[in-house]
Design a protein that fits this description.
Rossmann fold; binds 5,10-Methenyltetrahydrofolate; histidine biosynthesis
């Protein structure tokens, strides 16, 4: 079993980001907005900020109170949309319930939408047009490329249909000529479907979703889950799957670092496209 570690692949994405950044006459500036003190959000936003500092990207965190009004948040985004000193804008999800997350996403300039969540970027992704790509799906592709896992003609089964992972990953895998199936909570006889997969992606957000009997001998398993259980970070895949799979991403240390590295690259790409 090959352990598909994220670190080396993330390093290569970051090198790419730095190289492109050096060609720019200014330093790209990422703005991350966080509402409230949800511990997971605090920790993820810190990871992003730290990685940006590490590679010499400018990064500003905007920490607003949990009870910030939607209007105030939209006003901040307006200001950043108009600012020449903001190349990437990321509003950390999930947002408090009194805020309409979709409205916030649609308010962000698609040129600065480094999450790739704006409908314009989503539409372009499905049309095969150049767009800012969602960080986790794009990071997953970069991880496959780094480990020379080819996608053309492969049967890919994605378990999970979220707007941030499952759906955009299906579009990206399709653009690489994979045969893609998206399974979800209402899928009938899930193991029958997952057993077909040459490449199985778990993106559900529930520990223990994928067990060895659901995995074809020799399949590549990509675990996108980030679940905290008794203070420990675990994926969606049970540890015993390593006895069946030919390759498996660890959690932590697999897809997570790819997400952060892709965000850095997206910020540089966004800056390039805003150059005028
Ligand atoms: N607007 C928005 N964009 C996001 O991209 C976004 C978001 N909201 N909300 C939450 C999710 C989650 N997410 C992760 C990023 C990095 C790791 C990561 O680096 N994980 C490390 C370990 C982290 C740890 O130890 O806590 C790893 O897996 O090795 C995980 C998860 C981005 N998200």
């Amino acid at each position: 079993m090959i352990e598909l570690k994220g670190a080396p692949a993330a390093e290569s994405l970051l090198r790419q980001a730095v190289q492109r950044m050096e060609q720019l006459p200014f330093v790209p500036h990422l703005h991350v907005i966080r509402l409230g003190e949800d511990p997971a959000s605090v920790s993820y936003v810190r990871l992003k900020d730290r990685k940006a500092q590490e590679i010499g990207l400018r990064s500003t965190m905007h920490v607003l109170p949990e009870d910030t009004s939607e209007a105030a948040l939209l006003a901040l985004i307006d200001r950043l949309n108009a600012s020449e000193d903001a190349h990437g804008i990321l509003v950390q999800l999930p947002l408090p319930k009194h805020i309409n997350a979709q409205k916030v996403i649609e308010h962000t300039s698609p040129l600065k939408d480094v999450d790739g969540f704006h409908p314009e970027n989503v539409g372009k992704l499905w049309l095969g047009q150049e767009a800012l790509l969602p960080c986790t799906p794009a990071g997953i592709l970069a991880l496959c490329d780094h480990h020379q896992i080819s996608l053309a003609g492969k049967k890919v089964v994605i378990v999970g249909r979220s707007n941030i992972v499952g759906k955009p990953l299906a579009a990206l895998m399709l653009s690489r000529d994979a045969t893609v199936t998206v399974a979800h909570s209402r899928t009938v006889n899930l193991p029958e479907i997952t057993l077909q997969a040459d490449i199985l992606v778990a993106a559900v957000g529930r520990p223990g979703t994928i067990t060895p009997v659901m995995v074809k001998e020799g399949a590549v398993v990509l675990d996108v889950g980030v679940n905290r259980v008794d203070g420990k970070l675990v994926g969606d895949v049970t540890p015993e799957v390593r006895n069946v799979a030919s390759a498996l991403t660890p959690v932590p240390g697999g897809i997570g670092p790819m997400t952060v590295a892709q965000l850095m690259l997206n910020t540089v790409l966004a800056a390039e496209r805003q150059r005028g």
